[in-house]
Design brief:
single chain, mainly alpha, Growth Hormone, Chain: A, 2 domains
């Protein structure tokens, strides 16, 4: 069996530059129900007479269901490759979002709509897109992952104004339909034309590659027994619990400082823009320096934001500095964790192993905002959550900083 020599970073990009870009748009669909739902809150709750808690309770439900099913989806990626799942997932997720227009005003029906949306979003979770990119990029894997995962940043930037304009023009029901169909028309052709990893059967056959060549690394059960895996899982849980909660509560915190809503909204949009720079910067650094140490430093950056939240009220510059700091780190945790997963465990069971870590990321995402809200409801202040946040950020950074150097793994399928 003849195995091609590994490519340089420049050669990887010259051969496969369309893959991370198409994966980026594909990944944006995975958060259509997360970053695209906020503009619908007021019109839906107004029409149905719901509280915001009743509306958003379905969000927590959806994220927890996705967390429970992340490992099985990862196993499907390992078994069947990314392309089939990605194409199917883009179509059904966009259609499921459009079906939200059929909500009747009954809460059971609302949770049913969210249940369908949750299941439809499973084939477009991060594992699908990063798994394919990992098979094509080794020398420049960090930057390739960063571009792929910028899909969430694009969604966070694009979906709110798109939905707001559609709601204003057609009402929320028609807006749901157009929102889903517009994004389907943009993303599906890109994924169909350009999204092929080395393990996808047609790509393998076309390149004359043996499919087994990309399967170096640990198997699922072996990885689960590793203390490194446990540390990655704890780092994922602690970081997302904290940073997602801070992002979720950001506008409410600024309102408590006396800031008007429109100014708080512009500052919140700054988080989305800053996250693009944060992802690309993190991707650049982890390709050139020890990724666990880069991650440990990145995970400490929000501590500065939390200190500003504790002591910066009254400062003119503090809100913008907090937004930029949160944006620079929001999403960077996914870049770091997915990169370290490939370096420590290889690609043989990457989908299943990263699925387990995605479970931890999702649990943190679902529970952090709830914990912050409960602390505020009980005390009338977020200060206790801020102190908890500092402790969790320090622990997450320590989990990464204590990781050993990754082993040298043979990965030969990126041709």
């Amino acid at each position: 069996m003849t195995v091609a020599a590994p490519l340089s970073a420049k050669s990887e990009w010259r051969s496969h530059f369309t893959l991370p870009i198409s994966a980026m748009f594909g990944y944006s669909v995975s958060v259509i129900h997360i970053y695209g739902i906020n503009p619908y809150i007021i019109p839906v709750t107004t029409e149905f007479g719901w509280t915001r808690g009743q509306f958003t309770g379905a969000f927590t439900f959806a994220i927890l269901v996705q967390a429970l099913l992340a490992v099985p989806v990862g196993m499907l990626v390992d078994r069947f490759g990314s392309r089939k799942l990605g194409l199917f997932g883009v179509a059904v997720a966009c259609v499921a979002f459009a079906f939200m227009s059929l909500s009747s005003g009954d809460l059971t029906n609302w949770y049913l709509m969210w249940g369908i949306m949750t299941l439809a979003a499973l084939p477009v979770q991060a594992t699908v897109w990063t798994s394919a990119v990992a098979t094509r990029f080794t020398a420049s894997r960090g930057m390739a992952f960063a571009i792929t995962l910028c899909g969430a940043s694009i969604a966070q930037f694009a979906f709110p104004p798109l939905a707001t304009k559609l709601i204003g023009a057609y009402g929320w029901r028609t807006a749901f339909v157009w929102h889903g169909m517009i994004w389907l028309a943009i993303v599906l052709p890109m994924v169909f034309l350009f999204f092929r990893g080395a393990r996808d059967a047609k790509a393998v056959a076309a390149a004359g590659e043996p499919e087994a060549a990309v399967l170096g690394g640990m198997r699922f059960a072996e990885g689960l027994r590793s203390s490194i895996y446990v540390r990655l899982m704890l780092a994922s849980l602690f970081f997302t619990f904290t940073v997602v909660a801070l992002n979720f509560q950001f506008m409410l915190i600024l309102a408590g400082w006396g800031m008007v809503a429109i100014d708080a909204a512009w500052l919140a949009s700054l988080i989305g823009l800053s996250s693009i720079a944060g992802r690309l910067g993190t991707g650049y650094l982890i390709d050139r320096f020890r990724a666990s140490h880069v991650g440990a430093l990145v995970f400490l950056l929000p501590v500065i934001a939390v200190l500003l939240l504790l002591y910066g009220q009254g400062s003119v510059a503090a809100p913008a500095a907090i937004a930029i700091m949160l944006g620079m780190t929001l999403g960077a945790e996914v870049d770091v964790i997915v990169y370290l997963t490939t370096r420590f465990f290889g690609l043989a069971s990457f989908g299943a192993l990263y699925g387990g870590l995605l479970t931890a990321l999702s649990i943190g995402t679902a529970t952090g905002p709830l914990a912050a809200s409960m602390i505020y409801d009980a005390t009338g202040s977020y200060d206790r959550f801020f102190i908890l946040a500092i402790a969790m950020l320090l622990l997450s950074s320590l989990c990464l900083f204590t990781l050993p150097k990754p082993p040298k793994l043979k990965e030969q399928g990126h041709v």
